[in-house]
Amino acid sequence: MRILGDALEGEAREVARAQASLALRLQADRAPGAAPLLLLSGGEVTVTRRGDGIGGPNAEFCLALALALDGAPGIHALACDTDGVDGAAEVAGAWIGPGTLRDARRSGWSAEDALARNDAHGFFAAIGTQVVTGPTLTNVNDFRAVLIFPR
């Protein structure tokens, strides 16, 4: 496990691109048969609203991460808000895997378009990978977990 910090800040899509780059580098360095590696980070990322969609920073992080990873095999991720509400919806966040972009295309969704419209919640609702917990009555931090299997 590698902890990237508990106070990461910045634009969700930029943090996602940085973590995707790190995950791909770490995966390339892992020997076949090595144990999986988990990247953990916390902190409040933000979204600059550009479109008319619905989403929060954790779902937007996952959407941007899926695009940056482009279906890379063996990398999965989850991003959620500990209070159970990501942005303006009753969604805590989302999860992605190597098939996320493929599943979206099959459902008629463009990840690029969804990101441009800030519609991460619509995107993940369409493919069934939203995390919906309901209010947790706590708000410790947002968190992100990126699981990397060796290739």
Automatic annotation (TrEMBL):
A UniProt-annotated Pfam family: MOFRL
This protein's GO CC annotations: cytoplasm
SUPFAM superfamilies in alphabetical order: GckA/TtuD-like
Alphabetically ordered keywords of this record: Pyruvate
Statement: the UniProt record of this protein carries the keyword Oxidoreductase: no
The organism's place on the tree of life at top rank: Bacteria
Ranges where the MOFRL domain occurs: 38-142
Record's keyword annotation contains Iron: no
Single annotated GO MF: glycerate kinase activity
Name used for this protein in its record: Hydroxypyruvate reductase
The species this protein was found in: Frigidibacter mobilis
